[in-house]
């Protein structure tokens, strides 16, 4: 990653994540097909909902005949973390037009968000529409195509777990977390590591009380609050 | 699986709520400014969200009880973290992660 915000540079920055999208897109397609969805429906789901982990939950809820209201609520809860990511990103696009803001928001993902926050450390705190939109469009395209291919493969392979593809998402979170830790100079590494360390017991004990759908949002809010307190106490 | 019509309308409804979660903050922040305190709070979102998404995958939830440790994901995380530290290359991190979990599942 460097300080260039050109289209070429966006493509170069996104390439490493493409493999992750392919892995998860394929597994999603396979899971959807083995749950009885057609290739067309699986593709439409990735085109319309476009929400990684929420789509897996959506499939399992549909398969057991959950009412539409409960499904929509679950998907909203899983994706509510998007609100926090969009709020954080929107601050860097205040001078851009409303249409550009909406376009970036429409296709933002955990990964494009993490990539952009990482990019800020190289560009003196600047992001451009051109750069972000290229990252988003590439991710969207790869995700939809991998879903289609996965759904076709799903007629042949029924057990995607054996291939370890589902770990692509977790590995991507680990990689993006580490890259953010070592490149963000606005918060000291010591404080960042403490915040990450606190997240583990928060998630562990949180799982006793709060459904995992909602837990990500709750622990993120607590973690950010603790982060601010630690930063003022230590830095 | 329910009827195609039901699935289709569920997709549309889920698409709308997801889209709103994504774009409403962009639309509202065009009009309003966040205070410095809120911006500082949000500066912790990248690391807290990534950590939460990772750690959540290390456990299996049983509401009302302590979660069960997902040993396969936990073990596969070790070479993945090491690859992150040694190479700092996202592509390698993802590939090592996938291979690690596949090997762990093969062994179990």
TrEMBL record, chain A:
GO biological process terms held by the UniProt record: L-valine transmembrane transport
Membrane-spanning segments: 21-50, 56-78, 137-156, 163-181, 187-207, 214-234
Membrane association type: Multi-pass membrane protein
InterPro entries linked: Brnchd-chn_aa_trnsp_permease (IPR011606)
Keywords: Cell membrane, Membrane, Transmembrane, Transmembrane helix, Transport
Pfam families, per the entry: AzlC
UniProt subcellular location: Cell membrane
Keyword Isomerase listed: no
Coiled-coil stretches noted in the UniProt entry, renumbered to this chain: none
GO CC terms: plasma membrane
Keyword Zinc appears in the UniProt entry: no
Family note: Belongs to the AzlC family.
Protein name: AzlC family protein
Source organism of the structure: Companilactobacillus kimchiensis
């Amino acid at each position: 990653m460097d300080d260039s915000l050109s289209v070429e540079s966006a493509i170069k920055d996104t390439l490493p994540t493409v493999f992750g999208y392919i892995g998860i897109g394929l597994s999603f397609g396979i899971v959807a097909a083995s749950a009885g969805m057609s290739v067309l429906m699986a593709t439409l789901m990735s085109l319309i909902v476009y929400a990684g982990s929420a789509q897996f939950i959506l499939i399992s809820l549909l398969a057991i005949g959950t009412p539409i209201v409960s499904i929509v609520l679950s998907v909203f809860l899983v994706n509510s973390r998007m609100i926090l990511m969009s709020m954080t990103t929107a601050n860097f696009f205040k001078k851009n037009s409303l249409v550009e803001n909406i376009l970036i928001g429409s296709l933002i993902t955990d990964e494009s968000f993490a990539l952009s926050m990482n990019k800020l450390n190289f560009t003196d705190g600047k992001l451009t529409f051109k750069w972000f939109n290229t990252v988003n469009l590439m991710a969207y395209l790869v995700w939809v195509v991998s879903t289609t291919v996965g759904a076709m493969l799903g007629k042949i392979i029924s057990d995607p777990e054996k291939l370890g593809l589902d770990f692509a998402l977790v590995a991507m979170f680990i990689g993006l977390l580490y890259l953010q830790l070592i490149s963000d100079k606005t918060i000291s590494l010591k404080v960042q590591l403490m915040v990450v360390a606190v997240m583990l017991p928060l998630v562990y004990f949180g799982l006793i009380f709060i459904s995992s759908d909602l837990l990500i949002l709750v622990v993120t809010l607590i973690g950010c609050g603790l982060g601010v307190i630690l930063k003022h106490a230590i830095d | 699986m329910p009827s195609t019509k039901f699935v289709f309308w569920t997709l549309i409804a889920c698409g709308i709520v997801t889209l709103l979660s994504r774009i409403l903050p962009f639309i509202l922040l065009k009009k309003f400014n966040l205070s410095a305190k809120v911006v500082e709070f949000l500066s912790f979102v990248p690391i807290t969200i990534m950590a939460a998404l990772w750690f959540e995958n290390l456990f299996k939830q049983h509401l009302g009880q302590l979660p069960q440790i997902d040993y396969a994901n936990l073990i596969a995380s070790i070479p993945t973290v090491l690859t992150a530290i040694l190479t700092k290359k996202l592509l390698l991190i993802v590939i090592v992660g996938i291979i690690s979990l596949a090997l762990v599942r093969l062994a179990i």
